[in-house]
Every structure is written in C-alpha cells, then in structure tokens.
Amino acid sequence: MFGRKKKEEEVEEDLSEKPSEALKILSTNIQNYEGYHDLEHRKDSDIAFRAKLLKIMRDAGDSMSQVNELLIHSQLLTSWGPAGLVVKKIGDIRKEASDTDYKYSTFFDAKDVEGEHGLDLSILYLLEIEILDHAEEFKDRIHDVLTNLEEMMLDTVEDNVALLMSLSKNLYTRFNERNELIRAFEKMKL
C-alpha cells in the first residue's frame, strides 16, 4: 500500500532522503492527514493516522475472529492458544489506537517541534508508513489463513498462526515506538 511497491530498502532510502516524500505518501493515503509540522494540523493528522490504523485493525480483528472460530470448529487444539493471543494483541493495538493520551507530552502544544531540542519528523513519518504497511500485511495474512481454513487446507495452520503471532507482536511494538516518540517529546522553554 504505502511503501511495498519497491523493495523495502529502496523505499526507506528514498523516503529518508526526502521527508516530504514520506509526508506526501501519508497525506495521499490518509484522509485529513497534513503532517506534524504545523501546529494547527498536528492533532488532526494524529487522529487521522490512528483512524486509518483502527480501520485496518477492525478488519483484521473481524477476520481473526472467524479464523479463531474455524480453528475451534476444526478442532485444531494446538492453534487455539496462539490464535487467542493474536486476537488479544489485535485488541491491544485497537485500544492503543483509540487512546490519544500522550501523558505530559507537549508535542501537540509546541509551536515548533523540530530543531535542536525537537525531533526529526521524517522519522515519525517513516514509522507511520511502516506501521500501516505492517498492518496491511498482517490483515492480508489473516485473510489468507481464513481462506485456507475455509477450504480445509489444514496442513500449514500451525505455522500460519505462529506467523500471525509474530506479525502482531511486531506491529504492536512499532506502534508503541511511534507513540513513545510522541510521548517523549518535551519542548524546554528557556
């Protein structure tokens, strides 16, 4: 969706050299997203990003619930526990995406968030692209597992559920890194 058309290394190299390219990709693919440079757009962009991620995770959660039901119906006992953990991780990501509490961060209040004591917004944009790419891949993999279960192709179910566990943990970690970057922002008034 965002950066998957090229090889991942090429995309990251292109975007890190041109932060405006990363912003352009995000603003093209996310309604009401204008970036974090201007104070008046910062909160709206954060909300738009979270809404996009939340939509993907709702779709993923719906599909994963169906996967879980089919695993139970197929009596694939060894996959029940891991599938339940994936469902829980999706719920955790959805909860975090719904929560806009950044504690004591001044990221949404400071006029200038870049500069000597600020942060490099290109890193934030790259993280958001990566998160949305991972979320789309995760959703697609869940759909693949669901299709396999519906067609009674059960020989790779355990491996597929293990992959879903890994993808969900990675997505959760990256999303928390993005949120910690914003939470950790503190503009010192001298």
Q: Could you walk me through the main structural features you see in this protein, from its secondary elements to its overall organization?
A:
- The protein is an all-alpha fold and 190 residues long.
- The chain has one domain.
- Helices cover 71% and strands 0% of the residues.
- The chain has six helices and no strands.
- The chain is elongated, with a radius of gyration of 19 Å.
Helices and strands in order:
Layout: H1 8-17, H2 19-29, H3 39-73, H4 77-98, H5 121-150, H6 157-183
Task: Please provide a brief summary of the model.
The protein is mainly alpha-helical.
Mean pLDDT: 84
- Counted up, domains total 1
Number of helices: 6
Estimated helix fraction: over 70%
Our Rg estimate from Cα atoms comes to 19 Å
β-strand percent reads under 5%
Uncertain stretches: none
Largest sheet: none
